Amino acid sequence: MDAQLRVGLVGAGPWARTVHAPGLAEHPGTSLTAVWTRRPEVASALAEEHCTQAATSFEELLDQVDAVAFAVPPSVQAEYAVLAAKAGKHLILEKPLAHDVDSARRVADAVAEADVVALLMLTMRYTLQTREWLAGLGEAGGWKGGNARWLSGALLGEKYGNSPWRQAEGSLSDIGPHTFDLLDAALGEITAVLAAHRDAGDLWHVLLEHESGATSTVALTTRLPMRPTVTEFAVYGDSGFRSLSRKPGLETESFTALLDDFAAMIASGVRTHDCDATRGLHLQRILAMCLEAARLR
């Protein structure tokens, strides 16, 4: 691009401080232009750290930027993302896209109507390791099933343990989108949740059906004392067995790759991407299917 994208950051929590703000400030294609949160003193502190300014309102932030990055709870993101899209701003979104399917649909519709770029930060999806793994699966074909385990103690620690929305919505909303996204990409679109169970400690077990005819199983939790986090994906079938593990500390690499794609899409006029708002709506529907299947037990 001829000039850096001016990006406003909404949110100043742990993820905004460690990933979004430094990533936007350091990427050659973007400039961290303004920070806004509902707590002015927090926004000012983060803005000062990166030699930028704190906006006094969301409307003021919109007036100064080409794009908006969100690092806020899903319900808040859905509300402000619609406003930003209607103002013609490109969007960097967190998972899940929203709190529920209706809100996610409003975001996806606003993005389509405004013809803006919107990318969802699905951390593992942007890494070179994952992209090569998925490409290899596509070339081989013949996959009959798979499984995923994402077992973490994130909500037992200080960094994310103080996150009200994560405590309220649990592991399904927090790490479910990452997990379902990769199994969906590996085995074909997830079309049904055949069974789902959540125990009293927020440990989920889910059985999925894919458009390809494959089935897969998922185990999710953010409340088990796992150190390091166990994140494993595997598929099996006519082409054998192939697995993928999540490497620690890939957040910065992933966000840089997201920004690479984001800037390129805006410059080229491309609007579709494997991790766009339509993908976010699809994943939101899967979360809803899991909740419904668990209630039917």
Automatic annotation (TrEMBL):
Residue ranges of every copy of the Gfo/Idh/MocA-like oxidoreductase N-terminal domain listed in the record: 5-117
Keyword Endoplasmic reticulum attached: no
Keywords from the UniProt entry: Oxidoreductase
Pfam families associated with the record: GFO_IDH_MocA, GFO_IDH_MocA_C3
Protein name per its UniProtKB record: Gfo/Idh/MocA family oxidoreductase
Source organism of the structure: Prauserella cavernicola
Record-annotated GFO/IDH/MocA-like oxidoreductase domain positions: 161-240
Example of a GO MF term: oxidoreductase activity
PANTHER family documented for this protein: BCDNA.GH03377 (PTHR43818:SF11)
